[in-house]
Amino acid sequence: MPKIFENIKNIFKNISNKILKKKIPQKEGIESSKSSNGTNNSLDQEKSKSTKPKFEFRQIFSAIKKFPKYLWSHKILLILTLAGITLLSIVIILSSKPSDKETVISEGTQTVQNFVISIPSGAFPYEKSFRVKIPPQQSLQSILNTGNFASPIYEIIPSDERYDMATLPITLRYYFPSSLIGSNDANSLSFAAITSDGKAYNIIPGSYIGKDENGYYVESNLFVIPRWIGVVSTPGQTLKTGILEIYKTISAEPTLLIVPGSDPGFSGYFESTKVSGISLWQSVFKNRSILIYKYPLNEVRSYNYTTLFNSFKNANPLPSAIIFEAERLAEQLKKYSNIQFDILAHEIGGLIVYYCLSKHPEIKNVRKVAYISTPFYGTNIADPRLAVSIYPAKPSAAETLYNIPQSIIASMQSYLKSYIEGVNIYYSDLIPNSEFLKSMRYLPYRTDIETTAYMGNTPPMSIDVTSSLLERLYPELVLNLGDGVVSKNSARMPYMTLKIFNGSWNNFYVSDEFIQELKQFFEYKLPELPSYKDDTFSEKVTSDKEKVFERFLSAEQVQQFQIDEWKITDNPYIKFIQTLPFTGNQIAVYGGIIYTADEKGLYVSGTKVWDESILRLKETIDGISYMTQTKIFYRKLADTISYNSTSADDSLATKDFAIFAKPRPNEKIDFVDETGNLIITLRGVYGKVIYDGNEIILMTNREIYRYYYGIKYTAPVGLYKSYDMTYAIVVDDYVIATTRAYGLLVFNRAGNYAYTGEGWVGNLKLYKSGKYIVAVGDNFITLIDFEAKKIDRFVENVPGVVYDASVWEDKLYIMTSEGVLLYKIG
Fold first, then answer.
1. CB atoms < 10 A from the CB of 316, how many?
2. Which of its termini does the chain have fewer beta carbons within 10 Å around, N or C?
3. Environment class of 264 (CB within 10 Å of its CB; exposed 0-12, middle 13-18, buried 19+)
4. What is the pLDDT of residue 74?
5. Which residues share a beta bridge with 822?
6. Binning pLDDT at 50, 70 and 90, where does residue 772 land?
7. C-alpha to C-alpha distances, 385 to 160, 165, 391, 471, 513, nearest whole angstrom
8. Residue 391 in 3-state DSSP?
9. Residues 284, 518: contact at Cβ < 8 Å?
10. Does pLDDT of 726 surpass 60?
């Protein structure tokens, strides 16, 4: 390269000499002045020096003027000059181009060779950037020798040298040749974080394989960026999902199905190429076949799995990973419809099972379910927004700030990071008040399946934040209140029995005490065969358009209700009007004014009027009622009356008084007024306070009390059926109640009951509109006309997730994630 520049220099020098043919003569008197006067000689020399630059400038300017003409007349020289300029430009561009082996990123997406890193806006609460580079691989040879690395090892260095936790997931992607996976069911590539000492690596849970226009890639989401990271290959490995057999035996006892969560030890299943698969639960249930439902929580998701999941997300308004797995589990249970199951479900696995069974009442081959440390109301442990206040803190500083020993702070930092990244893409579903958990509130309870909830009483890793500033943030980490994932308030649904054992969420289930309890819960006795009698079996109504309305009144009459099913878009009874773009997940309508609310505030016709988290928005006497964290309010237009709030299942405020449903031990609910005076105690596991437009109703899942009349009604207890009530209103002195099984209970004033429409009646809320009773469910609407003895059900998917509903006169308002859907009834 230096010789090229030297040749170019010589060419320009020769050109200049040829252009400047005339030599400019020297001025007279210079030589004489040199010899005649010594004093003036020095002065003349300085003058000569001062004029010389002007002389050289004129020469250069003259040469530049003549240079283009000279080049034009010498075509070869012109071509060589242009080539030289082009070559020089290329050299300059190449020398100034940054290396593709290093980049700097603060937000957005950057690439270093085949490695792509994406940091979402707001991932860190302060300005932060990362330098990403490929260090000399020779210096990392020791770690390269420990695994089958399919990529270079990349080094990621934060600008502040702090490897802090982000509030949003950071995405890492590596493009690889398709030959590395073999098939689209393979999950043989995963990201691995190298330890700080550079001697080992840890597989990052929940990586997945995908494909775009650039080819195949493996991708992972994490919250704490490691210093060194690479991609490890396990040739020949494929993803196994669905119900798989662990242990098989011939037995009359139900098969045990294990649905694990993020704790890999819970399944108790170990397999190796050298020995047959064995299960921890085999020693506990020796007389049962044992199956496991496998899904890729910790494992790498294959290309085929990723494609199915992405299709599900694009087609559903609530793109929940838990719902996706719940639907897949439902398919598997239907596939094994000839097998009766008892289910043992842990943590996330419990949510999958609960959603699956609640959404699919047609699944009849499940006898009992044990829910182990299942966060039905979410867990703060999964929330990275809370963890960022703990993770970067120095234990010594945090000790003073939070009043917690340094050792506990260090354990919390390690535990929070490992748990959040362990649940990976499921983390957003587990955060309290997530869209998924909100949808769980309206799922029907399977009265035909016996359930019990279990939890531990000890947070893991000797963590205990009792009496510290973190006690309210992390009740899951309070000794005797939480087990590290759930607290007493989140470990069960209202109607479940909760049993607590010594230990943490990831180890109490192996204790002898718990094993004995589990054996007792799953105990199976062979049914006795009844002796045959001619009238043992009743006739079955087989018509799809008709169900028997059994009236157990004094005359023991049987009446029939005609049942029809319609589409919302094509029926003579209910018409869609419009979608109102109102925010919220709760709704109440009074005087034709629409009130909506959510955790951010209260809205009137879409305009925020109250900037605080709102709960239990509902209609009340001559207005609406709602709660904040400390108060319960009655509101009519702009006028409000407030009362002090108290811990309760439900509440209702009027302009004169307030009522609270307070649970107490032994499955009883106390209904008290705003001063704490007891109104009545009803049997049940959860309570509700309802204003139906005419009177106030106090109810549990077992009993109903008419507040103004002092009349109590009790749901029947059947041998093969449970009438678990969810909502109630009064119509013409009859009490109408919906049940968890989508049925309708009707009581007369004397307390006699009738039951009809199981599987046909929405159980979210009940309203009166003209001659109709309107029952709203999460995916259908039911109109009941008692005078005509007719039930009309409208089934059709509506945009978004259904949260709540209200009726005012002949208008039906359905609150969804897409806004308020407005319908006209009749």
1. 14
2. N
3. middle
4. 63
5. 578, 813
6. confident
7. 20, 9, 10, 16, 37
8. coil
9. yes
10. yes
What DSSP character marks residue 445?
Answer: P
Sole residue written with tokens 């049925």 = 743
Alpha-carbon gap, residue 347 to 310, rounded angstroms: 24
Match 């869209």 to its residue by tokens.
Answer: 435
Q: Using one digit for the tens of pLDDT, what is the confidence trace for 128-175?
A: 999 999 988 777 777 777 668 889 999 999 998 888 899 999 999 999
Question: What per-residue confidence (pLDDT) applies to 34?
Answer: 39
- CB distance 253 to 524 below 8 Å: yes
For residues 420 and 223, what is the distance between their CA atoms, to the nearest angstrom? 8
Average pLDDT over the chain, rounded to whole? 81
Cα 451 from Cα 492, distance rounded (Å): 10
Nearest-CA neighbor of 460 among 513, 517, 422?
422
Nearest in space to 613 (alpha carbons), one of 600, 632, 594, 596: 600
Least confident among 107-116, 472-481, 779-788: 779-788
- Which DSSP string do the residues of 501-531 spell out, in sequence order? ESS-TTTGGGSHHHHHHHHHHT---PPPPPP
Per-residue pLDDT reduced to its tens digit, 625-645: 999 888 999 998 888 999 998
> Between the CA atoms of 525, 530, 536 and 540, what dihedral angle is there, to the nearest 10 degrees?
40
Exposed / middle / buried, residue 574 (Cβ in 10 Å: 0-12, 13-18, 19+): buried
pLDDT of residue 372: 97
- The owner of tokens 């469910």 is 777
Structure tokens at 5: 């520049």
Separation CA 579–CA 599 (nearest Å)? 22
Q: What are phi and psi of 181, to 5 degrees?
A: -110, -25
CA distance 384 to 391: 9
Instruction: Compute the distance between CA of residue 715 and CA of residue 705 in angstroms, rounded to an integer.
Output: 12
Return the minimum-mean-pLDDT range out of 406-415, 424-433, 574-583, 785-794. Answer: 785-794
Instruction: List, edge to edge, every strand of the sheet that includes 601-604.
Output: 586-590, 593-598, 601-604, 607-610
CA angle 583, 588, 590 (to 5 degrees): 125
Angstrom distances, CA of residue 784 to CA of 271, 550, 762, 770, 773: 56, 16, 11, 11, 5
Q: At what angle do helices 2-19 and 38-73 cross, to 10 degrees?
A: 100
CA 618 to chain CA centroid, Å, is 28
**Contact at 8 Å (CB) between 406 and 398?**
yes
Question: For tokens 């009951």, what's the residue?
Answer: 753
Residue 736: which of 781, 786, 674, 771 has the closest Cα? 786
* DSSP per-residue codes, 528-574: PPPPP-TTSS------TTEEEEEE-STT--EEEEEEEEEBTTB-SSE
Q: What b/e string do you get for 641-668 counting C-beta neighbours within 10 Å, with b at 16 or more?
A: bbbebeebbbbbbbeebbbbbbbeeeeb
- Asked if residues 350 and 297 have their Cβ atoms less than 8 Å apart, the reply is no
Of 459, 377, 441, 466, nearest to 740 (Cα)? 441
Query: The tokens of 819 are what?
Result: 């806004």
Number of Cβ within 10 Å of residue 722's Cβ equals 19
H/E stretch holding 706 reads strand 703-706
pTM value? Answer: 0.59
Residue count of the chain: 826
**Rounded-to-integer distance, Cα 528 and Cα 74, Å:** 114
**Tokens 């049993």 -> residue:** 499
Smallest CA-to-CA distance from 115 within 84, 56, 64, 155 is with: 155
pLDDT at 25 over 50: no
Structure tokens of 469? 């500033």
> What is the band of 553 on the pLDDT scale with cuts at 50, 70, 90?
very low
Do 764 and 441 form a contact (C-beta atoms < 8 A)?
no
Question: What pLDDT shows up at residue 749?
Answer: 74
H/E segment holding residue 11: helix 2-19
Residue 430 and residue 347: Cα distance in Å, rounded? 10
